[in-house]
TrEMBL record:
Keywords: Cytoplasm, Methyltransferase, rRNA processing, S-adenosyl-L-methionine, Transferase. It comes from Paraliobacillus ryukyuensis. One of its GO terms (cellular component) is cytoplasm. Belongs to the RNA methyltransferase RsmE family. It is an enzyme of class 2 (transferase). Its main location: cytoplasm. This is Ribosomal RNA small subunit methyltransferase E.
């Protein structure tokens, strides 16, 4: 069953008005017609089961039949802070991170980041990534749409406020001196906000790690192997999902 995220100003108590690219998807791709049914998601996470009552050139009107009680969101609010990677790796990180339950993404330039974002192109890049996240959230039947924020500098990352702040550090993996991931994740309780920081291809510098530690970040190892930057955050999300959703 299809899901569509619809802005709050398109809702009334009885119906939803859908515009933009979603109309093309409903009418041309899915070939829906009057009385066909699908889910519409509000920005606050509420999900309505709807039935099409009218189709115009650029608008679909759907009646709200009932509200869904299903909750598919992570018990804890998980944010992935990702250093800019090379190429199109962010496409994969955004798509799969959304499918795995990330609540939001923070993007930043690390000391060893090869890619430097031109500030003039940030809006265009965000438009692309927000589209990827929206499509992934609809495909995976998420209730909430993850947000994406580009940080102005690394110092801004060090000062963010969360209940738990973790940084994946390859030297921690090599030394094998840290706690196992399972032990670290036992700290996390439902409803808490969790940040997991992932470095670029070259990893974090010692200077960056020292700064994060000064702001109560915990260094963690993501298993015994060294992971690529596009794999690390997904590994952490999958591990957290299992810990929070599949174990008692």
């Amino acid at each position: 069953m299809q899901h569509y995220f619809v802005p709050l100003d398109r809702w009334t108590q009885e119906e939803v008005t859908i515009t933009g690219d979603d109309v093309h998807h409903i009418v041309r791709v899915m070939r829906m017609n009057i009385d066909d049914e699908f889910y519409c998601n509000r920005p606050d996470g509420k999900v309505a089961f709807c039935k099409i009552t009218a189709i115009q050139d650029d608008t679909v009107i759907a009646q709200i039949l009932h509200w869904s009680e299903t909750n598919v969101e992570m018990p804890a609010n998980i944010t992935i802070a990702q250093a800019f990677p090379k190429g199109d790796k962010l496409d994969l990180i955004m798509q799969k991170g959304t499918e795995l339950g990330a609540a939001s993404f923070l993007l930043f330039e690390g000391e060893r980041s090869i890619v430097k974002w031109d500030q003039k192109k940030v809006d265009k890049k965000l438009q692309r990534y927000n589209k990827i996240v929206k499509e992934a959230a609809e495909q995976s039947h998420r209730s909430l749409l993850p947000t994406i924020t580009v940080l102005s500098n690394f110092a801004e990352l060090s000062q963010v406020t969360f209940d738990h702040k973790f940084v994946a550090y390859e030297e921690t993996t090599r030394s094998m001196t840290s706690k196992r991931l399972q032990e670290v994740f036992k700290q996390i309780q439902p409803g808490e906000r969790v940040l997991i920081c992932i470095g670029p291809e070259g990893g974090f510098s010692e200077k960056e790690i020292d700064l994060l530690k000064q702001h109560e970040f915990q260094c963690i190892r993501l298993g015994p192997r060294i992971l690529r930057t596009e794999t690390a955050g997904l590994y952490a999300l999958a591990s957290l999902s299992y810990h929070l959703e599949e174990t008692e």
